Amino acid sequence: MLEGLFGNVIVEKIFFFLNTYGEGYPSGIANTFGEPVNRIQQQLKRLEDGGILASRLVGKIRLYTFNPRYPFLKELKALITKSYDFLPELEKDKYYRMRTRPRRAGKPL
Amino acid sequence: MKIDWEKIDIKSLAAIISKKLNEKGIDAILVGGACISIYTENKYLSGDLDFISHASLKQLTAALSDLGFQRKSSRHFIRKECPFFIEFVAPPLSIGDEPVKSIREIKTKFGKISLLTPTDSIKDRLAAFYHWNDPQALEQAIMVAKAQKIDLYEIERWSMQEGHEGKYKIFIKMIRI
């Protein structure tokens, strides 16, 4: 949907993911969409270099979020939020309505 | 003028880089921790110099190679013997969602440096404190506030607009200690 604007379908997926869940790490995002991790990492790095995303290390994982200091963040998020409304329900269910509440360690399910 | 790269200070390096970029027709503004080092006379010492420029990385790489700097990764440049590394942060020049409107110029024996004003340097550091709870950034903002003449009304206006009244009050309390 925004692929034409961003020139890349991976970027669109990353934006929807971060707009929905607030944060994400490369392999988690890659697993969600069934994309190779290196393709996700490449775009995350590009977006971080552009000041759009920010990252920090949590243990051994590099966690990405939108950069709250990006001057056009409000406008970018408004665009992403609006275009998200146009996604098919099936796609929303599949990728953007995953469980985010905690799960106690050792719990079988 | 011969440059002792091992012993160079951050202000001189900023001036040398700025002069070289200007010679190549490139405008660059010094931002980030290096401004704090300059305004506090190295009470806080940054390890890198962050510039913002609208020039392409190709142009920047060519200009800095004249000084012996090599592009290390994406936007970073290093030079053998030089203790600081250079980074070109993605434009635009902004603090929060506002463009930066005034720039300070400092003259050194190596040339001029264009950099954030002390007030904008504080806002830049406070942005890191406001958004990421970074205590070091707060400490640096306090150092500049105590060392330089600043516009507190402007910092207050901007802080309110960013929605961080509570954290602004912490900053104000700390600079009055």
In words, what does this structure look like?
The complex is a heterodimer of chains A (109) and B (177). Chain A is mainly α and 109 residues long. Helix content of chain A is 53%, strand content 11%. Chain A is built from 6 helices and 2 strands, in the order H-H-H-H-E-E-H-H. Chain A has helices spanning 3-6, 9-21, 26-33, 37-49, 73-85, 89-95, and strands at residues 53-58, 61-66. In chain A, strands 1-2 form a two-stranded antiparallel sheet. In chain A, strand 1 and strand 2 form a beta hairpin. In chain A, helix 2 crosses helix 5 and helix 3 crosses helix 4. The relative contact order of chain A is 0.15. The model of chain A has no long low-confidence stretch (mean pLDDT 92). In chain B, helix 2 (33-39) crosses helix 4. Chain B contains 7 helices and 9 strands. With 177 residues, chain B is α+β, with helices and mostly antiparallel strands. Chain B is globular, with a radius of gyration of 16 Å. Chain B has helices at residues 10-23, 33-39, 57-65, 118-132, 135-147, 152-162, 165-175; strands spanning 29-31, 48-52, 70-73, 76-78, 85-89, 94-95, 98-99, 103-108, 111-116. In chain B, strands 1-2-5-4-3 form a 5-stranded mixed sheet. Chain B has a two-stranded antiparallel ribbon with strand order 6-7. In chain B, 45% of the residues lie in helices and 20% in strands.
